[in-house]
Amino acid sequence: MDYNLRWHEKAVDDLRGLDRKLQKKIVARIRDYMPKDPIALGKPLTGVFKGFHRYRYGDYRIIYAVDQTLRTVMILRVGNRKTIHDRP
């Protein structure tokens, strides 16, 4: 059974700041791969981001949280790997 995807408003804003072609690629990648097994797909984060996961797509990172009880993945942030962890 696949997980449901949800997008936080900050992640949507992050996407809007990217080139439209890149937006489509990232959304397609998330839609195609993330619902199947988000825990195995991404890498668990540590420190202040403990409890979240990240998925790498080229130079971009997708930060997300997984709720196994509700079988939901919340996409929290999308951004360049150099700056994604610096933003609130």
Describe this entry's structure for a reader:
The chain has 88 residues and is α+β, with helices and mostly antiparallel strands. The chain has a single domain (4-82), classed as RelE-like (YaeB-like fold, 2-Layer Sandwich), CATH 3.30.2310.20. It is 30% helix and 32% strand. The protein has 3 helices and 5 strands. The protein has helices at 9-16, 20-33, 38-41; strands at residues 4-7, 43-44, 53-57, 60-67, 72-80. The protein has a 5-stranded mixed β-sheet with strand order 1-5-4-3-2. A hairpin with an 8-residue loop joins β2 (43-44) and β3 (53-57).
Task: Describe the structure concisely for a colleague.
With 88 residues, the protein is α+β, with helices and mostly antiparallel strands. It has a single domain (4-82), classed as YaeB-like fold, CATH 3.30.2310. The chain contains three helices and five strands, in the order βαααββββ.
What descriptive keywords fit this protein?
88 residues, alpha+beta, YaeB-like fold, five-stranded mixed β-sheet, 3 helices
Helix and strand topology:
Elements: E1 4-7, H1 9-16, H2 20-33, H3 38-41, E2 43-44, E3 53-57, E4 60-67, E5 72-80
Parallel strand pairs: 1-5
Antiparallel strand pairs: 2-3, 3-4, 4-5
- Cα Rg: 12 Å
Weakly predicted, low-confidence segments: none
Strand fraction band? 25-35%
- State the helicity in percent bands: 25-40%
The name of the CATH architecture is 2-Layer Sandwich
